[in-house]
Amino acid sequence: MFLEVLNNMKIKDVMDIEVITITKNATLRQGIEIMFKYNKGDIIVLDDKNRLFGILTMTDISLIGGAFFSKNKLDQPIELYCNRDVISTTIEGNAISTKELMKEKGIGRLPVVKDNKVIGIVRIRDLLDKVYSKIDKTMETFSYILNGIHEAVCVVDEYGKVIFWSKNSELLYGIKSEDIINKEISEYFPKALLLEALKNRKSITSIYHMPREESHVFLSAEPLYIDNEFVGAVSTDRDITEVMNLSVELEKTKERLDLLQEEMKKITMDKYSFGQILGKSEIIVDRINKAKKVARTNSSVLITGESGTGKEVFARALHQESGRKGDFVAINCSAIPESLFESEMFGYEGGAFTGALKNGKMGKIELANKGTLFLDEIGDMPFHMQAKILRVLQERQIVRIGSDKTIDVDVRIISATHHDLRKLVNEGEFREDLFYRLNVVNIELPSLRERKEDIPILIMKFIKEFCQENKINPPNITTEVLKVLMNYNWKGNIRELKNTIEHLLVFSQEGEIKLSSIPEHILRKHTVDDSGDESFDLQKTIERVEYETIKKVMNMVGNNKSKAANILNIPRSTLYYKMNYYNMD
């Protein structure tokens, strides 16, 4: 088919229609000037009736002795110097035949004539470029295909010279393509199967061979024929070393994966356990104890509270404490476009809709099988999806989009929201039946304003984490800064506190966090709150007296904590806590 395409190419497919012409009475100088002007290597000379008279090329000009230095020659008619022995062709002429004719006559170009008029020119260079570009393109395509085959591929001509050596051949035998192309295959492989295929012109299949130590291959060779004419042979060498070692590697990989999974579970359990939830306040301890009691059950849990209070941290701790073998899968209901929500939750079969992955996709519910599905911002779940989630809770089954097959799932649902779901139910924006299904156990997390005694603990934790991550020494934090942070109304709760601590550490000076490091909006709020002449806040007064008393006693006993605890008549653990609370060195 390819040869047929080449044989059918016409002159009109390869000719250049941008031809420059000049009359025979024009001077040689004018001809040269036009050729330079249009950057052409040839010019067609016409007679008085605009018919083909001759042709002049740059090669002809170079052979004119002293043409560029003799004014007489330059000003003479161009007809004296052009080549009049011109062979022409027509647009319907065969390109391949014309090429052979030009090669035989030693002609570099032929004018193309129609109705005695020159309409184009075909040059041997352009003809070769256009004809053989098809060959090059086809060979490039073949090379791309053969290089993409898993086996090593070698092609030789009828004389045993290598004309193709694939990338996988380079890898398998360690011989570069540029080193072996146009060389006889016998120079590198004296006993190559290709030599036998060339000699006997018969197929050879699946012969075991070991080209080098610890390398195993199966070889096949086929003679090549084009139009019943023998033109060479091709071999494919399949590297079976990989196959032979596959089971061993898979076993090793499985062992490593099992080990990594165990280590990851340990790390995750340590990171997200209830023990990592910071706080000694009565309210947070109560919430932790409540969560521990429900963790080992399969009951649905609804975690409520303001943004930044640590709802996902509690959800992960519940999962770790539950002992469920599956994964913890989190999905933010407010971050998924409504049109994609169902496919994200339930997954889909291949080709279920435009843009679907060929092999389909597993949904979040299925991923959480035997584990926990955390529905964050449940209040933002689209209304039509609420009925589908309710059905999952009731029937413990799902159906992927584009499928009619039910899949059993064992999923524990933990949801979280900062919205008032009861209010959304009354307003008709949240299903009442789903609300009761999700709200079997409610854990309401306190805001940071309700657990201010935990602020120093959180501050020290965030300082330690940031300094370790950035490999810097922890700076000191002054009492004035601590007072500002304790009194600030943290609307963003723990998340806002953490971001603020990072800001303080970035702008700390000389190893100390000072008032000047505090963000302006926090400092301004503190200044407004403290603008009165006298404070009647009983809690603040008690804290101030406590701080001064502990400081005085510690100075008196030379910082001996045991003696100080006895004098203050409190347990030493209480003294440690209060000193940590007031950030006292």
Automatic annotation (TrEMBL):
Q: Which residues form the signal peptide?
A: none
Q: Does the keyword Transcription apply?
A: yes
Q: Which residues form the PAS domain?
A: 138-189
**Which intervals hold domain Sigma-54 factor interaction?**
277-506
Coiled coil (UniProt feature)? 243-270
Outline the extent of the CBS domain: 15-74, 82-137
| Keyword Coiled coil among UniProt keywords | yes
The protein's UniProt keywords, in alphabetical order, are: ATP-binding, CBS domain, Coiled coil, Nucleotide-binding, Transcription, Transcription regulation
InterPro entries named in the record: AAA+_ATPase, AAA_lid_NorR, CBS_dom, HTH_Fis, PAS, PAS_fold, PrdR-like, Sigma_54_int
CDD domains from the entry?
AAA, CBS_pair_SF, PAS
Cross-referenced Pfam families: AAA_lid_14, CBS, HTH_8, PAS, Sigma54_activat
Entry-linked PANTHER family? C4-DICARBOXYLATE TRANSPORT TRANSCRIPTIONAL REGULATORY PROTEIN DCTD, TRANSCRIPTIONAL REGULATORY PROTEIN
Q: What is this protein called?
A: Sigma 54-interacting transcriptional regulator
Give the source species.
Alkaliphilus flagellatus
Q: What is the lineage of its organism?
A: Bacteria, Bacillati, Bacillota, Clostridia, Peptostreptococcales
